[in-house]
Amino acid sequence: MSVARKLERLVRSIPGVGGYQDREATRESDRSVRLRIGAGLEQIKREIEQLQRQLAERREFAPLAALGRLAAKLDKVANLTKFAPRGYRAVFDQPDVDQDVLARLCAFDEKLLDELHGLEVRSAMLLDAEREPAIFEDLRGLEEALDHFERRYLTRADILDGRME
């Protein structure tokens, strides 16, 4: 066993310290997931803005306003995830972190990351669309998926507050 591991075990034997370290690790994990989601949404936004520039250069102006609204919505949801409070009182300030809540949160976050991947796939389809009818169809699909993602993300707080099983 390494010296660092031995010191960690020793420190954890002090009453209250282990729970504090668990809460801090959980907060950091929560923050990492939210930042990953925010970064993924920002990447999609940058790609949408690039598509806007390409369409403007080709003088295809019809989809630009809708793409602009989508980019703004992506920015809003990205900020919602990135700038949420770090950790949540209901879970992280308890002396012992509720392992059931953490398990539900972990499963929920895995699904969120899967949904983020779905948004990335829909974005790629939109970027590959050649002409307006396909662009509008893919744009609608991406926007609906983003609306669903945002509603789903907002229910994450319900898990943390113990309102969702």
Describe the structure.
The protein is elongated, with a radius of gyration of 21 Å. The chain has seven helices and no strands. The protein is an all-alpha fold and 165 residues long. It has helices at residues 3-12, 17-57, 64-82, 89-92, 99-128, 132-154, 156-160. The chain has one domain (3-160).
* Unreliable stretches: 15-21, 86-92
Quickly count the domains.
1
Strand content: under 5%
Specify the overall morphology: elongated
In whole angstroms, the N-to-C terminal distance is 39 Å
Number of helices: 7
Task: Give the biggest beta sheet.
Answer: none
What is the arithmetic mean of pLDDT? 81
Features:
165 residues; mainly alpha; 80% helix
Summary, kept brief:
The protein has 165 residues and is an all-alpha fold.
Layout of helices and strands:
Blueprint: H1 3-12, H2 17-57, H3 64-82, H4 89-92, H5 99-128, H6 132-154, H7 156-160
